[in-house]
Amino acid sequence: MGERRTTTLAALGRIAVGKTPPTGRAELFGGPVPFVTPGDLDGRREIRATARTLSEAGARAIGGARAPRGALLVACIGAELGKVAIAGVEAAHNQQICSVVVRPPHCAEYVYYDLSARAGELRGAAGGSAQPILNKRALGEVAVALPPPEVQRRVAAILGAFDARIELLEETGATALALADALFRAWFVEFTPSGAPREVAALFEGREGSPRGPIPRGWTVARVGELVALDKGLSYRGEHVGEVGRPLVGLGCFAPGGRFAAAKLRRYAGPFLAHHQAAAGDLLIANTDMSQRRDVLGSPLRVPPLGEPVIYSHHAFALRVTAPGDGWRDYLYLALLADEFRARAAGFATGTTVLALPRDAILGHTVVVPPEPVRAAFVRQVGPLLARVEHGRAQGETMAGLRDTLRSRLIAGELDAAAIVA
Predict the structure, then answer these.
(1) 62-88 confidence digits (pLDDT tens)
(2) Is residue 358 a contact partner of residue 348, using CB atoms and an 8 Å limit?
(3) What is the pLDDT of residue 129?
(4) In whole angstroms, what separates CA 343 from the centre of its chain?
(5) pLDDT tens digit string along 160-195?
(6) 318 contacts 233 by C-beta, under 8 angstroms
(7) At what angle are helices 372-411 and 328-337 packed, to 10 degrees?
(8) What phi, psi does 178 have (nearest 5°)?
């Protein structure tokens, strides 16, 4: 692969520490400029959209704390320390993130793939105890072993092809889930039975009053607590978490939008009770959020088929269906993804630094209860869409494993990039 040369990030380009405009000035926020914070470094290779934005005045207020497209973004403080992404667009970033602009002829994407496998090393280089911080100087001293520029570009292209495929699978899954959500809204919010058989559509006729407003005649309304029981997950000791044992679904596995973040799955080898277990298809819901964005709090998750039961942590509840009939888990999954429940969860959040969701926020939420034939027909239509979501997730996980195996060997110079077809 050619001679490798060791250098430092500071020698590779310009490092800049971010900044936040004065938070008391509302006119500096909510504009067209993406504002990257550590929560945006969620596993995506490129950051093109952010949870927060700045106005043009806000961007001017932070001066040079803007990253051009293609710059590396490195989280340098807090729980996200060591996470790396690439700026997919020009963006501002706060003081918890440093941007690294890699100068030609070196390849920023290659440096990204090098650093993305070294989060533990970056955390180890951080100073501080209560709140570890990787300052600009320490980040600049991080060593990087580089092959010739043409090899860097070849390695980045190979690994980038895997990431492009993973991103396509994620987009396909997101589209399928959006279609399922749209179907749920049509049938159970607007009461328009799109695609329903004639005999099922007939069950949507007529209207009568209910606590949720007019609903089809013969339907009812129930609290979620009348349909399920809640179990709280395991409060575990860190010494039992590692590389062996049962899969452990923790808070990190809950991604916004009802997605399962497989990369955050850990293993647990300690004691647990029967109700701390969940099987494939079981419904979990996050009862905690470490951020103030409330995008995970109250988010539901369908346990994927992992070949064995999982343990879920105390940051989640399991919804155990008690209502008679089939299809309730898929129905409730989509009901809890709906905007109405998302707003309810945000409103019920307690706490300042760490947000918590009480049981009553879930159990007291009301949903329409359609006749059994309606629910069965809905599950038949939505089932293939949810299966497509799971299929894409599983394929993406396989692709990510292959990418990571290749990455370690390519970055270490153990494989000849020229011999691999991207």
Answers:
(1) 987 789 999 999 999 987 899 999 999
(2) yes
(3) 61
(4) 19
(5) 999 999 999 999 999 999 999 999 999 999 999 989
(6) yes
(7) 70
(8) -65, -40
Token pair recorded at residue 293: 């964005």
Rg of the chain over CA atoms, in angstroms?
A: 24
**Which string of DSSP letters, residue by residue, matches 352-364?**
SSSEE--HHHHHT
Length of the chain (residues) = 422
10 Å Cβ neighbour count for 117?
Answer: 14
Mean pLDDT for the stretch of residues 11-15: 96
If you average pLDDT over residues 136-143, what whole number do you get? 95
Contact (Cβ atoms closer than 8 angstroms) between residue 306 and residue 336: no
| H-only helix segments in 96-148 | 108-116, 119-124, 136-140
- What 8-state DSSP symbol labels residue 207? E
Mean per-residue pLDDT of the chain: 93
Per-residue pLDDT reduced to its tens digit, 260-275: 988 789 999 999 999 9
Strand 277-278 and strand 310-312: pairing?
A: antiparallel
Classified as helix, coil or strand, 266 is strand
What is the reported pTM?
0.84
Q: Is the pLDDT of residue 422 over 60?
A: no
Q: Report the distance separating Cα 300 and Cα 316, nearest Å.
A: 9
Helix H or strand E segment including 69? none
- Max CA distance (Å), the chain: 77
Say what the pLDDT of residue 264 is: 84
**Rounded Cα distance, 68 and 66, in Å:** 7
Other beta carbons within 10 Å of 27: 10
